[in-house]
Design brief:
Elements: E1 9-15, H1 23-33, E2 38-44, H2 50-59, E3 64-67, E4 81-82, H3 84-89, E5 94-98, E6 101-105, H4 108-117, E7 126-130, H5 134-145, E8 150-155, H6 158-169, E9 179-184, E10 197-200, E11 226-229, H7 238-245, E12 249-251, H8 253-269, H9 275-286
Parallel strand pairs: 1-2, 1-3, 4-6, 7-8, 7-10, 8-9, 10-11, 11-12
Antiparallel strand pairs: 3-5, 5-6
Length: about 290
């Protein structure tokens, strides 16, 4: 008779707000598919409670987890170390247990690059990124390392936007041939006509504010551009609809979510998950 074991291995996501985050649906579908007795918990954590939440991960022997808004930067001093990518970006979206240590990783940018590679090679591309938070930093760094040549960072906060531009033009430039510039976001932004890829890395349009409009002059979108939205819920944001209407090739947030989830799953479990199982779970949730 097999030894009885009622203990499940635990993973999670911490965020606020977090109720609209669909990661649990795809990760637990993959756990079931691969016969792993693991759980993925969606946990609301206020900023002031993040230190206690990370201490709880330690105490309860969580195998890892994800961070979403607003914890991707604040979690760094609470961890025992960072991967090279997370250190470079200054943002963590994935925690991996290594023995008794919690190590910060960043899979956001890698997940995005995988999605983009499905439609084009990032090498030499001119990129416009709307936003300059944790997701924008991760995506910009990984795209630069993948060969993208020029970045325009558009953000309302000059300090955050200029910080990301400085990162690209200094530390990242030591590793890749890249140039970045900052544009302060005031009024509707006009996409430069030579742009190859436009990325919404803000939370504008995230459920429940699904009809929120990004301050963007959509008449400057052209059919030779790729438009990507990092928001997974809903997959069809207003930007996605506008970009399709303009004839752009569109990447919705589900692709990035699945790809970064595949990386995290492997880091936690050592198992290569089936991405089609994860994508289907999300499509079932959203009726896509």
């Amino acid at each position: 008779m097999a030894e009885l074991n009622f203990k499940q291995e635990l993973t999670s996501v911490f965020g606020q707000p977090v109720a609209e985050n669909p990661t649990q649906a795809m990760i637990e579908a993959a756990y079931r598919h691969h016969n792993l007795d693991w759980r993925y918990l969606t946990i609301e954590v206020a900023p002031e409670d993040l230190p206690a939440a990370v201490q709880g991960m330690r105490a309860m022997n969580f195998r890892g987890g994800n961070l979403t808004i607003p914890h991707k930067v604040a979690v760094i001093p609470l961890l025992d170390g960072l991967s090279e990518a997370a250190s470079l970006m200054g943002a963590v979206n994935c925690i991996v247990r290594n023995g008794d240590k919690l190590i910060g990783e960043n899979t956001d940018g890698k997940g995005f690059v995988e999605s983009l590679r499905g439609v084009t090679d990032p090498s030499g591309k001119r990129i416009v990124i709307l936003g300059a938070g944790g997701a924008a930093r991760a995506i910009a760094v990984e795209l630069a390392l993948a060969g993208a040549s020029h970045f325009t960072i558009v953000n309302r906060s000059a300090s955050r936007g200029e910080s990301l531009v400085e990162l690209l033009n200094t530390k990242v430039r030591e590793l890749a041939d890249v140039h970045a510039e900052f544009v302060k976001w005031e009024g509707d932004y006009d996409i430069p006509e030579e742009t190859d890829v436009v990325i919404n890395a803000t939370s504008i349009g995230l459920f429940p504010d699904v009809d929120a409009r990004i301050a963007l002059n959509t008449t400057t979108l052209t059919s030779n551009m790729i438009v990507a939205d990092v928001i997974p819920n809903p997959p069809e944001t207003r930007l996605v609809r506008d970009a399709r209407q303009a004839g752009c090739h569109v990447l919705d947030g589900l692709g990035m979510l699945v790809n970064q989830g595949v990386i995290g799953f492997k880091l936690w479990t050592g198992v290569d998950p089936d991405p089609s199982v994860m994508r289907k779970a999300l499509e079932d949730v959203f009726g896509a």
